Amino acid sequence: MFDNQVIHTEHRDVIHDCSYDYYGQRMATCSSDQTIKVWEQNEKGQWVVSSSWKAHSGSIWRLSWGHPEFGQILASASFDRTASVWEETVSDKPGPTSTSTKRWIRKTNLVDSRTSVTDVKFGPKTLGLVLATSSSDGTIRIYEAPDIMNLSQWTLQHDIPCKVPLSCISWNPSVFRLHAPMIAAGSDSTSNEPKVFIFEYSEYNRKWSKTETISSITDSVHDIAFAPNSGRSYHVLAVASKDVSIFNLKPIIDQTGCSRFEVVSAAQFNDHYCTVWRVTWNVTGTMLVSSGDDGYLRMWRMNYQKGWKCICSFKPDSNTQPTVDSPPVVNQSLSTAKFFKKGSNNTQIQQH
């Protein structure tokens, strides 16, 4: 059962990203109006703004929540060439009816990029408190907070040159003894070159190196997402471009002893019939949700034969229930992603 809930965000410009926290109980939105808004559900299940502030001097492209083990922290990426880390603080007002006030404080401003910072992602908590950014100058930068009790101190650990403008990045959340840290990056450049790259960290060499290029994706990439690993011996990567693409990355060892991947195309769908802007996985990595300029959310699931199929499509600005394979109605004004909340309700975000 899907209950449709409309949220009037009161952002004054285009909303570029909407991100839920680890538990799906809080939500953050960012916009070209240079503000970030944090939302919480009240006792009636309605989303209300708990905090709103001007965060940057340019459009804010992406947001990322840190793992709650490190506290309530949020990272943002902006056109103003910076990425910021924010921490929520709680202060008690003295008095007979003392109340708690929540405020988000900028703990650091990362200014190494020479151009727009296009994406920002906290790494898996098993790596500690690390943060990766991508920029249109073609560089991935990885920062680490050496002391999680002092979030004002971040060190630049790695510069990873990619030689093409980058639009999005994704950490592989499956970091185990046999899986080295991995990052996938996508490019929105206008060239006819490959647009998806896989980087892996070598503990022996203490550096990141490109281990794979997915040559079949030559159209602009707008989003990229590794699936959580629920016991697979390979990795699954979703790519949002003009289509929805799903790849299996099977680790192999070549003759030189270096780690490589056999890239297998698991699925490619053009059901949106237009640009796809966002892809996101459920917690088990068995279901994918995509959103596009047709105004539809489409849900994909793998069957027992390891084949992917669209199981549901949903138009957020409609009061109808989700349908399977419903024909798209193109709405060019819907250029931002709309995600399913963790749970049974669907939330529609409207800009006012």
UniProtKB/TrEMBL annotation:
Q: Write the record's keywords in alphabetical order, separated by commas.
A: Cell cycle, Cell division, Lysosome, Mitosis, Nucleus, Protein transport, Repeat, Transport, WD repeat
Q: Which GO terms describe its biological process?
A: cell division; cellular response to amino acid starvation; positive regulation of TORC1 signaling; protein transport
Q: Which InterPro entries match?
A: Sec13/Seh1_fam, WD40/YVTN_repeat-like_dom_sf, WD40_PAC1, WD40_repeat_dom_sf, WD40_rpt
Q: Which SUPFAM superfamilies match?
A: WD40 repeat-like
Mark the transmembrane ranges: none
Matching entries from PANTHER family are given as: NUCLEAR PORE COMPLEX PROTEIN SEC13 / SEH1 FAMILY MEMBER, NUCLEOPORIN SEH1
UniProt name for this protein: CLUMA_CG001707, isoform A
Identify the species of origin: Clunio marinus
Instruction: Tell me the classification of the organism that encodes this protein.
Output: Eukaryota, Metazoa, Ecdysozoa, Arthropoda, Hexapoda
